[in-house]
Structures are given as structure tokens and as C-alpha cells.
């Protein structure tokens, strides 16, 4: 069941955001995608493909190594077409409720209530299993800033940022200096009068330093202490500006507004859990599972391994540890994160290739190829040093040419 008219999820670009709350403060969002018009991939395309469908350049399309968002959407459309997946998808169907039919039974079944968006028809159906793959880059995560509710000027989250033109000649404060904050700031300096980037730390990567030195109207600040009704933005160091707009590039919250699990799966400070290996509820598996919750890993190959584990489980070809064993594993994982000083809100940030390989071992899925790891790290290092140019200029071409000789890229792919 897919709420939009086509496949793609985040990668199905939605240019019209006028009806969305500017800070996303509604239970049900009208806009799912947070992709902005100029967004390009941060990872090289050759690292991103599924195991049986390389993400190679197509004639007449965006052939860049770090293509724009539309190219990834077209890749997903091609994948669905080649493997006949569209026939399995109900489009324009929004799931409003998922809950247990037989809470006390060992074998759970699920009531799924959905709405056909065009006709308004409500459907209630019972299923043996539910897989939640609804994404986590839609619901804005906002900071708590003194005076935020009283500040009368324009405030919005990057969830609804699309193009820089509405900010022409404005003084804009961008809150958050991670990937989207950097990207959007670089775009805004070309049209805005001034761009003030507010970061948690003033110790920034060399690439961002180069960008700030290059653009006289781009300024770095510490975090915001308060917002004043007269339009002033006061920073932690006591400095102050009068701004027209505040743009929050502060990330996203995990939300599952449709799921009623009777407390078995809850979200606490952006930790979805308890989930065994970020995928299975110890109390509700195998009938409830999740795909795509982990962040900061090579996404598509990992999601593929999740899907294969779930499919094997639901078809009776494998089994999970006991509920107690799964809970023990989860507790140990939480303790290890705590020992490493990782905040609860970053529970699902993996940033470790070894985890993908460990996960694959549960079902005999191949480990990440060494070339994927090497090219991914090479791109990250280049982006840290050369933020503005890394998508168009790199020094790992020798690795790339060697990679393209790998059997993965020479396998016979069904034509679209």
C-alpha cells in the first residue's frame, strides 16, 4: 500500500508544498518527500544499487556519478518495471490504522484500515503479517528555542524547502550544519542578502570553512539562545542579527501514527523499539517487522538484506531467536551505545560497514563488496575536504575504473 501515485518514497519529488504546515506540526503530513529541487546524491551511484540491478548510467538521462534526485527515482521505477513489482502495489492508498486483531494469541493477525485517496473509500482488511517501510525523513524534528513561538517572521523546516527564489534579498538564518544545512546554505548565498549558519559546534570541516571564506554573505554562528518578537536572533555568544526567515535543517523524527501495538513498539526520543537488529519486535515477530529504520549506512543493499530476512522468516525458511534472547541482544546493544556516548536519539545511526556484514550473516546474504566500502569512504573524505566540488571532482578514478570491471557491473540485466 503506497500513499502516493507512484513508487519512490522520498525520491518521488513533490514540488507543491503550499498546503503543508511550514514546521510540519500536524499528525498527518500532506507532503511525504523532503527532497529539494537541486538535491544531488551524496554517495556515488555505483555504491547504491541492489545486488541484481546496478545503478548504471542510462543513455539520455542524468549520467553524472552523483546524479540529481530524479535519476534515483527513475532507477527505482526501472527496478519495479523489470521485476514486475508495480502489479503488487496499491497506489494512492493511505494506511490510517494498523492494530492487532487477536492480541492474546501466540500467532498475531493485523487489522489494516486504509483510505483510497481519490474516492475516499475506507477499507478494513485482516492480514497475517505487516511490514512497515514508511520512511523517516518526513516529520520535522525541531529544536526548542526560547521565543520560538513568539517570533512573528517566517519560520520553516527544510522538509518544505524546494528552491531558493522565495528567499531572494532576505536575511536568512539556517539552523543546523549537517548535510542539508550545508547544501541549502550554499544554494541560498546566491540569492539571499545574507545567510547565517547556526551550528552546534564552531569546529567545522575544512570543506565548509572553504565555502564560508569564499562567500562574503555566508556567516557562521553558534547555537541560538533566543528569538525576539522584533525579529532579532540572539546567538549563544551574545551576537545578534535581525532576520527575515529562519530555516530549520534539524533532521527528522521517527513517527508511526498509524500503528497501535499496545506498547510493544514505541518511539522514545527517536529510538524505535525495542527492535531486534532494528527490524523485529521481540513480542510481535514474525508478524510485524520494519524495513529502513537504520541510518548512516549504504541504504539499498542493506534494505535488500532486511527484505530477504523478512521474506525467509514469513515463508518459514528461517526462524528468530526466542523473545528473551532478542530482548537480551537489544539490551546489550543499548548498553554498548550508551558506553560509546551515543545519545538515545541516535540509536539507529549505524556508521559501520561491519554491521551490514554481521546483519547479512543471519541469512547468508553476501557481505558488502570491498569496492563499495572503499568508494563510499573515498566520497565521504572528499566531501569533508571539498564540500562545494566533491560531486563533480574526485581523485579515485583509478578505483572507479577497476570497480567497473567487477562481475557485478558486467552481469546481464533484464532490459526495461
Written overview of the protein:
The protein is 25% helix and 17% strand. It is built from 9 helices and 18 strands. The strands form 6 sheets. The protein has a 5-stranded parallel β-sheet with strand order 6-13-7-8-9. A 4-stranded mixed β-sheet has the order 3-2-1-15, with no helix packed on it. A 3-stranded antiparallel β-sheet has the order 10-11-12, with no helix packed on it. The chain is globular, with a radius of gyration of 23 Å. The two termini are 23 Å apart. Belongs to the FMO family. Its cofactor is FAD. Its EC number is 1.-.-.-.
Summarize the structure.
With 416 residues, the protein is an alpha/beta fold.
Amino acid at each position: 500500500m503506497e500513499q502516493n501515485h507512484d513508487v519512490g518514497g522520498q525520491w518521488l519529488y513533490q514540488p507543491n508544498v503550499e498546503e503543508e504546515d511550514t514546521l510540519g506540526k500536524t499528525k498527518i503530513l500532506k507532503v511525504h518527500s523532503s527532497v529539494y529541487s537541486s538535491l544531488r546524491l551524496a554517495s556515488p551511484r555505483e555504491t547504491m544499487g541492489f545486488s541484481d540491478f546496478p545503478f548504471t548510467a542510462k543513455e539520455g538521462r542524468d549520467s553524472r556519478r552523483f546524479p540529481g534526485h530524479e535519476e534515483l527515482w527513475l532507477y527505482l521505477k526501472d527496478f519495479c518495471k523489470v521485476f514486475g513489482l508495480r502489479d503488487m502495489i496499491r497506489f494512492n492508498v493511505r494506511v490510517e490504522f494498523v492494530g492487532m486483531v487477536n492480541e492474546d494469541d501466540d500467532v498475531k493477525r493485523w487489522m489494516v484500515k486504509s483510505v483510497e485517496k481519490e474516492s475516499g473509500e475506507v477499507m478494513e482488511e485482516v492480514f497475517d503479517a505487516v511490514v512497515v517501510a514508511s520512511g523517516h525523513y518526513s516529520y520535522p524534528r525541531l529544536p526548542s528555542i526560547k521565543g520560538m513561538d513568539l517570533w512573528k517572521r517566517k519560520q520553516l523546516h527544510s522538509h518544505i524547502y524546494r528552491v531558493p527564489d522565495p528567499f531572494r534579498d532576505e536575511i536568512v538564518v539556517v539552523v543546523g550544519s549537517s548535510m542539508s544545512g550545508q547544501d541549502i546554505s550554499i544554494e541560498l548565498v546566491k540569492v539571499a542578502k545574507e545567510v547565517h549558519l547556526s551550528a552546534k559546534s564552531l569546529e567545522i570541516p575544512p570543506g565548509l570553512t572553504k565555502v564560508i571564506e569564499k562567500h562574503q554573505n555566508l556567516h557562521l554562528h553558534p547555537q541560538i539562545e533566543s528569538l525576539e518578537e522584533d525579529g532579532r536572533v540572539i546567538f549563544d555568544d551574545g551576537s545578534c542579527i535581525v532576520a527575515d526567515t529562519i530555516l530549520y535543517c534539524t533532521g527528522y523524527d521517527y513517527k508511526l501514527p498509524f500503528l497501535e501495538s499496545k506498547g510493544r513498539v514505541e518511539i522514545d526520543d527517536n529510538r524505535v523499539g525495542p527492535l531486534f537488529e532494528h527490524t523485529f519486535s521481540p513480542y510481535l515477530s514474525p508478524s510485524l517487522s520494519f524495513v529502513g529504520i537504520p541510518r548512516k549506512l549504504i541504504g539499498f543493499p542493506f534494505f535488500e538484506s532486511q527484505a530477504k530476512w523478512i521474506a525467509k522468516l514469513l515463508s518459514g525458511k528461517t526462524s528468530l531467536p526466542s523473545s528473551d534472547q532478542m530482548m537480551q541482544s537489544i539490551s546489550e546493544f543499548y548498553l554498548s551505545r550508551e558506553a560509546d556516548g551515543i545519545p538515545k536519539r541516535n540509536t539507529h545511526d549505524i556508521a559501520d560497514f561491519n554491521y551490514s556484514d554481521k546483519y547479512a550473516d543471519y541469512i547468508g546474504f553476501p557481505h558488502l563488496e570491498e569496492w563499495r566500502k572503499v568508494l563510499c569512504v573515498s566520497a565521504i573524505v572528499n566531501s569533508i575536504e571539498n564540500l562545494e566540488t566533491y560531486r563533480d571532482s574526485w581523485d579515485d578514478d583509478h578505483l572507479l575504473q577497476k570497480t567497473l570491471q567487477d562481475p557485478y557491473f558486467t552481469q546481464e540485466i533484464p532490459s526495461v
